[in-house]
């Protein structure tokens, strides 16, 4: 069923929404209409893309503030953990990319209502987080050292974790990672796998997940979601 | 206010609860009464302690299955990601320690109802997760290499992240990390800081967080919570 997905558009965010427009909405929906959201990150997808896509799928208006790498040193000490992305909600900062992804996901109907399925969604988010962690230090390496480190990851967590996620996907019926419609776990998986398959990371062959039919179908399905495709075309491909 | 905290005991889990006992409970509360929970981990606190404490504070019955290190190789391939802890809910496995902590936390009234405060709780959980990550590889090191690596962490993430958490705690009024009562973020912080301050980790001085009054008060407050103190006394101190 696509109950949650078809429902996403209800959050159409109209700035200066009148009281009339707010009638018939739940308290949470009214809040989404009146809160302001500013997502601050570099002009890349990286750790902000899944949250941007959640806003887009939920049709929730937000300021997509992209900073130049040169402005980062001055901004860094003003952020909660010396890191971005940061999401400002009515001016109050929320850090940690997956905390903000889950928060926006709840507003965008991209987080399972059932507590156990919500936990399975969290499980996938943490697993994807772990899968990417050992890749980060390799971006500071060069030449043979980088090659060796990345090849070891192909033989380890980078592939094994996604294989485990494929198994979980199949156990949930093969359609979505948690629950019975698209969730933030699917968005996160889409962003991660699409990046790894891009051919843009030296020594990471774009074929590394070709043996995982469920994951590939999922990435295709998320990528052809109208709101996702539109966002990427208008805001990521051109900007990057 | 301690609304959520004082409410925790309502989940008294009675095995074989009769239909009569279930009257007046929400669907979620009835589920907690009839579901079975088995937490599988080594006979240490580690990544399972916060979840065990959440069960204890919520007065939710669970099987606390502790395996010997020698049994792990045989068990490993049967777990979702080749890792424990795993929480079996009616026999269905849930992996990733913070996914299970959040799940149990929601049942135990240890997770903020307000979505933004829930996100601040998630933010702290992710920050604590990050703070511990660079410590893990040092357990495979020895002698001078280990000393150097750990001293570098004292000058970096291990202290800076907890300093950032202290700041967030103060911004939230100084009592709790998120919302206005104890949450799973406080339990996680308690477990982490208590371990780092234990003096049991070579080259990590137990004084490393002495300059953070809010964190120390929080750890003391969580540690003297009746359910937490009782659980640690009866199930952790003696077993370990």
Automatic annotation (TrEMBL), chains A, B:
InterPro entries per the UniProt record, alphabetical: Glutathione-S-Trfase_C-like (IPR010987), Glutathione-S-Trfase_C_sf (IPR036282), Glutathione_S-Trfase (IPR040079), Glutathione_S-Trfase_N (IPR004045), GST_C (IPR004046), GST_superfamily (IPR050213), Thioredoxin-like_sf (IPR036249)
Secretion signal span: none
GO BP terms in the entry: glutathione metabolic process
Residues covered by region (Disordered): 1-22
PROSITE patterns found in the cross-reference section: GST_CTER (PS50405), GST_NTER (PS50404)
Pfam families: GST_C_3 (PF14497), GST_N (PF02798)
Protein name per the record: Glutathione S-transferase
Organism: Hirondellea gigas
